[in-house]
Amino acid sequence: MCAPVLMLNAKCQVLVERIIKNGIMGGNVMRVNSMFDFQLRFFFIFLIAVFMLSGCSGDSSGGSNGNVELSLENPSENTDEADPEEEADPEDEGDNNDELTYSREEDYPNIVKLPMEFFSTVNGKKIGVSVTLPANEEGEPIDDVFPALLVQTAYNMSLVSTPSSSGALSGGADPFLVKRGYAMVTVDVLGSGVSEGGWELLSEEEQNGYGDAVDWVLRQDWSDGNIGVSGVSYMAIASLFTAQQRPDAIKAIFAVVPLGDAQRGTAGTGGLLNGVFMKTWMTLTQKLGTQNMLASLLNPQHFSQIIRSTREHIDHIDSFYLPLVDDALAGEDYIRYDGEFWRARAPLEYIDKITAPTFITGALHDIFQRDEPLLYEQLQKNVDARLAIFDGDHMSNMLQANEGNDAISPLAVLMLQWFDKHIKGLDSGTENIAAVTQYVKNYESESEDGFATTTAWPHPLAESNRWYLHGDLSLSQELPFFDEDSLAMHASDFAIIEYGKSSGGHFLEFGVTPVDGSDCSLSYRQWTLGGAATFNAPPCYYDSSEVEVDALNYESAPMSDDYYINGPIQADIWIDSTVTEAVVSVRVDEVSPDGSVVLSLTNGLLAATSRSVDEARSRYLDGEMIQPFHYLTAEHAAEVVPGEVFKMQIEIFPTSAIIRQGHRLRISISPSNQAQGIMNYPQQENSVGGVTTIHNSPEYPSSVVLPIVPLSALN
After folding, report:
1. Assuming Cys at both sites, which of 126, 218, 384, 533 could form a disulfide with 537, CB separation 3.0 to 4.6 Å?
2. Can you point out the beta strands (E) in 475-582?
3. Cα angle vertex 448, ends 436, 86, to 5°?
4. Average pLDDT of each block of 10 consecutive residues along the chain (715 residues)?
5. Strand 451-454 to 691-694 pairing
């Protein structure tokens, strides 16, 4: 039995771009109320792309254009860097029927969606639930029992009600899986959609509700007692927490772009506040959670219940959203530092509770880029687990869950294969799926698919390779022999922050505008969930060249051979500061012979007062620390003494790429990357007018450690 082949293409992006260009969203077909800002309009367009446009399974990454095939059992790989502005022709795409190699016939001819129901949590909150069951030709439910596929969403299940083969990932009705003998169950989590309560960001009460949903499913007459959990993004996170809540009931997990550590991986990277992500995601979640008019009209028996829930969601702006933003910007300890608030929202903290076979997918520029391989690494110690890392950003990898040309989601096929094995006990061939499949930028081979497979993450053949920064802005593997020029950076101005409620009082408004140039960079694309690069994106959303104009750019000599990087990266930067807080941002690029940035790979940043490292929880390779684990706690906050030299051990998120022969490796250092992290107000006060000096000497050898894999591992 062969593993499935996934088809990703640029068609979905192209079609949606044409919608915008033709003015369909501008008023000819759909008008969006002015109070809906960019995030909400973007999500509605995403919904259209996923559920109304055919032939979309696209990757809008800009790193690869046109068709890219992934075979999860084929170790060879290929990609060509494409012009992000070049438009793919949808007519060039072929049928992907031959590529979806796992298949089986439908067990039932039809599906039926049952009327919306509510169940009560142990805390007495009413939670909305939608069920889709196999049906006969007349659309009547089959009188039998079935395993259930459970999706728990904070994005309002009523907005994705259109039947789709991506339903088991997005929360809609799913004919593809339901006709093959699964019950589809979608739940609005506490505080979202039609469910009661106020949403509080994966709170303990919300997570307890995940277990209540499992208990409700097990009580149903149509349930055979076996449950799989699945979803993209928030729904993937909820799947992991659900499996932790009820490990005995959950038989399999399929999680697309999930979170692992909310603080280190997303909202508080490097001891800073990821304001761009927060303003994108928090406003989106709050607004979607209140869009219940359609649900109330389609379910008149629950009209008063739905309206009451909606009112609760709106009132929560004042009781949760705005206080949370206030506290984050004020640098309140429970937000600023690692502790109960963040650990309760980190699936990695409870990963050993999961006993179900788990498939994890991620992306090289995903908002959860750091966490997805870490989740897999921990899971595979105890369960049957797989990891697939794609190119692109968060949204492009959500879109890959959409239907292909044959109206079957490629990921749905893989998910069917996974669930058939681990829930139904069928011989679906999952043993042939490689443990780890990664997209490798710039890789070319006969298979022309851009992917490589291996047996573990990090790559088992990886070796540490240290590159030193020199005072003449060169980058070499030779330690400085004498004191070289130290180079200085002046602190950036502070990002512009505006927040409050909409004029009508129904929606959260939250604006963060970088002033350091990072609002036109790969980082901005990444931390807006890919939304910044979805429509008519300028080239700067595909690399970091513009923001690096005024940075300290250290470059190697031209590579004598292809240079394969795979895994996490660490920058050891020796600095001093004239003030008591500073930020160091590090980007990793490939530079062409003409000096232009042709590929931005990854980045990291760190606040100086957050530099303390838990060595026991850090990662080492060949005796070199390569992935520092920062405490990020109040008791480990590090003092910065003006003029005193100290080392910043900066975590740079993992990547997989080849620096091509004749091209150069660039390490770009700057005093901020506001697209990824902004200072809270106390940090701002302590950094005003600061000058940071980078040292390059035998005593203070600033350097970067890269994980290098032999090229032979790609063959």
Report:
1. 533
2. 475-476, 487-490, 496-501, 508-513, 552-555, 563-577
3. 110
4. 33 28 26 34 41 32 34 41 36 36 92 96 96 96 97 90 67 89 96 95 94 98 97 95 97 96 95 96 92 91 95 96 97 96 96 98 96 98 96 82 56 92 97 95 74 95 98 97 94 96 94 95 94 79 90 98 98 98 98 94 98 98 97 98 98 97 98 97 98 97 98 87
5. unpaired
pLDDT at 160: 77
Residue 711: strand, helix, or coil:
helix
Task: Compute the chain's Rg from CA coordinates.
Answer: 25
Q: Which class is 110-356 in CATH?
A: alpha beta
CATH (residue range 463-492+550-714): 2.60.120.260
3-state secondary structure 92-161: HCCCCHHHCCCCCCCCCCEEEECCCEEEECCCCCEEEEEEEEEECCCCCECCCCEEEEEEEECCCHHHHC
Q: Which of 39, 138, 16, 6 is nearest to 439 (CA)?
A: 6
Residue 396: which H helix or E strand, with range? helix 394-399
C-alpha triplet 503, 509, 513: angle, nearest 5°: 130
What tokens were used for 416? 């069917």
Strands of 307-459, DSSP E: 358-365, 385-393, 436-439, 451-454
Residue located via tokens 């949760």: 320
Beta bridge partners of 436: 387, 454
Asked if residues 446 and 44 have their Cβ atoms less than 8 Å apart, the reply is no
d(CA 676, CA 605): 8
**Cβ of 460: how many Cβ atoms within 10 Å?**
11
Q: Spell out where 354-507 has E strands.
A: 358-365, 385-393, 436-439, 451-454, 463-469, 475-476, 487-490, 496-501
C-alpha closest to that of 269 among 677, 681, 680, 682: 677
Q: How confident is the model at residue 161, as a pLDDT? A: 65
| 644 Cβ contact partners less than 8 Å away, ≥ 6 residues apart | 576
Q: Which pair of tokens denotes residue 331? A: 């640098």
First to last CA, the chain: 22
Residue 53, pLDDT score: 31
Nearest to 376 by CA among 486, 542, 479, 253: 253
pLDDT for residue 171: 78
**Residue boundaries of the structural domains of the chain:** 110-356, 463-492+550-714
Beta carbons within 8 Å of 8's beta carbon, 6+ residues apart: 57, 58, 59, 67, 68, 69, 70, 390, 400, 410
Phi-psi region of 365 (alpha: psi -120 to 50; beta: other; left: phi over 0): alpha
CA distance 185 to 192: 16
